[in-house]
Amino acid sequence: ALDRRDYVVARNELEAAAGNQDARAILLLGVIHAQGLGVTPDNRSAVQWFDSIVELPGGAGIGEGEMPDK
Q1: Could you list the mean pLDDT of each consecutive 10-residue stretch along the chain, which spans 70 residues?
Q2: Which of 45, 50, 57, 61 shows a CA-CA span of 20 to 30 A to 67?
Q3: What is the pTM of this model?
């Protein structure tokens, strides 16, 4: 849906995937909220989505204070 720029459908699909702890979906939801794609731009919501990636179990996100290996 994102490739078709159908942001309402994309957001619904991504929210479902985010509920399953999909880091890519969570990242894209942050971008959608930051850029106001199909929603009112909301940096607070964007930051909340971005921050939630860090909290994913099993190393799906980058932990606080950690840097990925180069």
Answers
A1: 87 94 94 94 95 79 51
A2: 45
A3: 0.77
